[in-house]
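Section 3.1 - Work completed
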Amino acid sequence: MYHYTESGLQNVYLSNGFKTRKTAAGDAVAIVDAGGLHQAIGRHIASKGHMTGAEFRFLRKELDFSQTRFGALLDVSEEAVSLWERRGRIPKSACRWMQALYLESVNGNVRVKDLIEQLANLDREQHDKMVFEDTEAGWREAA
């Protein structure tokens, strides 16, 4: 058995699906299909009742949401999301939202997947300057 703590969760163990190799620095472990493993972990977490703070953080990161972006979805501060994750006291509505978003995303709901991608991309984009132009049809963002 391998205790898989790399996920940020302390209760995940692997019975197979990993390879161990001896190196000069000690034993190295390689996961055969890390993406598939994370999806299996995520499905398990999203299908249960209340989540721990670490489980909530795991799903948030799997969806590629920052604390700021997820907080904005629920109209709460980044600090609130951080406290939920650290203390484990997550409002039931936030748990349900996270679980639903995750399951819809991995189950291939294209609309939800696109929405999540757009929201996650907002965190990566820099909008230092907004340029608009007046056209015959009215104001619009300049190309």
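Second construct:
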Amino acid sequence: MDKVSGKLTVYFEDPFWAGVFERRAEGKLSVCKVTFGSEPKEYEVNEFLLKNYYQLRFSPAVASEARRSAHNPKRAQREAHRQTESMGIGTKSQQALKLQQEQFKTERRTKSRERHEAEKERRFELKQQKKKKKHRGR
């Protein structure tokens, strides 16, 4: 059975606090970015995860190598310390977020194009009706 792991990074992105959820499964990485607003407390983040995890919109999966876990406790402690010191998100996560952003952009463009075409069609139909109404005799 494959391993599924998740990671949450909360950081300050002026003017709000943001969180990046990383989900690794089957050698693939999916990412979701959430804006919290004011600095979230640990219990607020936990509550948010419990309530909204299944509604999060993760990015399309990006290939990612599985990380080897450190068996040495001192090494694990140093690694945890390094991760808490580093700000921001990893490059793979950034790629996944960018991919998600591009996907949303194309969806938004197609929807707005469809709306625009529908509005154009509606106006054309109104013009045609008005023309026919004028043409009828009294």
